[in-house]
Amino acid sequence: MSDDEHRLQVEDGDDHAGVPDGFQRLWTPHRMAYIGGENKPSDSGAGDGCPFCRAPGLSDDEGLIVARGGAAYVVLNLYPYNSGHLLVCPYRHVADYTDLTPEEVAEVAELTRTSMRVLREVYGPDGFNLGMNQGHVAGAGIAAHLHQHVVPRWGGDSNFLPIVARTRALPEILSDTRARLAAAWPSDQRG
Ligand SMILES: [Zn+2]
């Protein structure tokens, strides 16, 4: 294959017409949404310019918050890869996993486990992708404020969801998702 042909194929892939690549399919939609500018932080600082600092100050409905802990909280991804795509964030504006306090590490882990249990109960996924993108180069849309992805997966979902995810997620649907997950969240873990 010549360089030109190779380049062409890569470009086709960006338009979701090429040979699928699992890793890119998983993380590109968020990156594209943020590159598009919507909800993009004005800078890397804390405060209202950062969506993950801003969300806890809103009501659960407005902020799409599913659960609030003492050091971390669970929020619906505004640009979900799948229905029920959650983000577990420390309240503190911290970029790097090594900078979390032991309390934050423990709570991010516990909220991640509860997210899985609640998602299983409500949506019955076949599996999950869990993970943190550390740094822009690794695909973090908002690199300055650490967030752990909890992405429910179903057999065959990667065949069509990148296209679905690129279309605007309707606020009503996200708000329904939030309400269902919040209702299923164990009461002893509600903030
Ligand atoms: Zn922040």
UniProtKB/TrEMBL annotation:
Gene3D superfamilies on file: HIT-like
SUPFAM superfamilies: HIT-like
Pfam families hit by this protein: HIT (PF01230)
Superkingdom of origin organism: Bacteria
Sequence ranges of Basic and acidic residues compositional bias: 1-18
Region Disordered, annotated ranges: 1-20
Protein name: HIT domain-containing protein
Provenance organism: Cellulomonas chengniuliangii
